[in-house]
Structures are given as structure tokens and as C-alpha cells.
Amino acid sequence: MATEACSEILEKAYRFADSRLTKRLVADADLGGRIAYAALCPSNRAGARFLLAATLAKIHKPTVDIRKPFIQAYADAEKANAYGGRHYDELYVASFITRHKLPCSSTTAFLTPAFRTKNIVLDLSQKLRGRPPELYDAILYVLDAIESGRASANDVLRELVRVLVVEREDRKARLDILKQGLREQSDDLALSSEDTVRLIEQHLALKYSARLPVLVVAAAYTAASQRLGEKILGLNAHRAADGQTGALGDVEITLLGDDKVVTTYEMKDKPVTVDDVDIAIRKIADGADVQNYIFYRAS
Predict the structure, then answer these.
(1) C-alpha dihedral over 81, 128, 34, 121, to 10 degrees?
(2) Tens digit of pLDDT at every position of the chain (299 positions)
(3) Where are the alpha helices (DSSP H) in the chain?
(4) Is residue 13 located within the same domain as residue 127?
């Protein structure tokens, strides 16, 4: 399998979709709605990556049946007309969504409970385990539309990318409006230290705020950088494993004018275990200059 071929398929789809953002790229309105739902389901973001990998596989090798994802990550040989779904996902789709900052899950869809251990044909008769069930019904519908010839994999891929790009731009626009609002309020009286701490505590207590402790520590170091003589390195993707990014922890601190990590913060939402400490020791055992490895429990 040539990396360039699969990457170019995705890039061509991106260029095509990006030039036609205001027009749906599949003729069937019902199919278009299901593609959009699968791509943007707010409570489960696995759908977009699954369909991106499946449509890529179908375009790259038209003889495969995309209702038959081969579960193993990097199989040496495909079984009959099955395909290595996780292979396409992790090798090509992951870098594609990162490169274009598309609003997708940061981890593979093929290890979610609905697909992880399935050795079945994903046809319309299946009831996949996962929430919401409408998401998996939409995915099965899209797979069936492609395999039955009612839609082309190329059109579905382009529509998927178009929907994701539109969502990315909408999010950016909303964020710009919020930033502008903050700038307009910048001349107001600053909050007291007690008010600031109270606001942070309230935010930490909210659901889906797992990233916030990382941002709090990063912001504190950024504010005191000149006095401390230290700075933070760029933050990596929230759900990316350290083994993938090469990071020693969630927040890495270096001396000003240097790039060697001297302090690392690892955020945990549960008690620190001996295994956590052992992992930290292994990370710095190969000669890193880390002087402080700090565990912070966020809950």
C-alpha cells in the first residue's frame, strides 16, 4: 500500500470539498443528513473517523467490502474482501485530520466497543452496541448505500470532509466572537484573587473539563515566565498518548533559552499508583534532565 496514494486521495477530497462548502456533495438528502449526523454527533465523535477510513479504503481498493473491517491493526494479509480499518485510520486518517484541524476524535474509532471485537458483516440487520444508537444506525446506512451502489465512496468522502470543514470554520467563528468579547471587556476592573480562584474551582467542577487543569498550570507558568526564568513547551493533543507525541507529561517546563525539560506535570483524575510512578521513572530513565516530575490530581 503506497502512503502517497492514500494521502493524496484524502487531500484531493479536501481540496474539492473546501471549494464547495455551501453545497451538499451527495444527491440524496436523507443520505446527506445521516453523513452529517455521523460526522458531528456531539456525544460520540467516533463516526467521522470510522467513515473517513472506510471510504478511503473503498476508493483505494474498490474490491473491498467496507462492511467488513478487519479488526487487527496492521494485518499482513486481508481476509477475503475485508479491509484493515484501523490500519487506514491510524496510518492516514489521523494525520489528515490533524493537518487540517478537523473536529474529529483524536483516537481511532476501531477500538470503540461497537467495532473492537466484531467479526461480523456490518449490514443493516446489525444492532451495534454503543450510544447513541442512532449514530450506529447512520453509519450502517452509509456503508450500505456505498456497497449497494446507491452512492459512491468518493462522494461520501467529499461530503464528510465538507461537513467537517464547515464545522471547523463555525467553531473558529464562534471562538473569534468570544475572544473579541473578552478584548472589549479588558478595561474592566480585574477580578480579586479570591474571585479568580472561585471561578477556576467552578470550572474544574464542571463535566467535560479534563483539559482545564493542564491549561491552568500552563497559564500560571506563562504569566510568571520572566520571573521564574522558565517557560512551557507547546501543549500536545489532549487525548494523545505520551508515547505517540514523545512528551514526558501533560505540561513540560524548560529554562528560558533552553529546550531541555526540567519540570513535568502529569494530570490525573484518580489517585496516583505505583504503576504511574514506574511509568514516570521509565520516561526519564534514558538521560532526560528532568528535575521535578509532579503528579497533580484534578478531581
Answers:
(1) 20
(2) 455 599 999 999 999 999 999 989 998 999 999 999 999 998 888 899 999 999 999 999 999 988 888 754 434 445 668 888 888 998 999 999 999 999 998 888 887 777 765 677 888 888 887 788 899 999 999 999 999 999 999 999 999 999 999 999 999 998 888 888 767 766 666 667 787 788 878 877 777 777 788 888 888 888 888 888 888 887 766 555 555 556 677 788 888 877 778 788 887 777 878 887 777 777 766 656 666 777 766 65
(3) 3-18, 29-40, 46-60, 85-88, 94-99, 133-147, 153-184, 193-204, 212-223, 225-228, 242-245, 274-284
(4) yes
Within 185-287, residue ranges assigned H as helices are 193-204, 212-223, 225-228, 242-245, 274-284
Regarding whether 209 and 146 lie in a shared domain, the answer is no
Q: How far apart are CA 127 and CA 136, in angstroms?
A: 8
Domain holding 287, by residue range, is: 194-297
Please give the model's pTM, rounded to 2 decimal places.
0.66
Q: From CA 205, how far away is CA 215, in angstroms rounded?
A: 15
Residues in the chain, overall count: 299
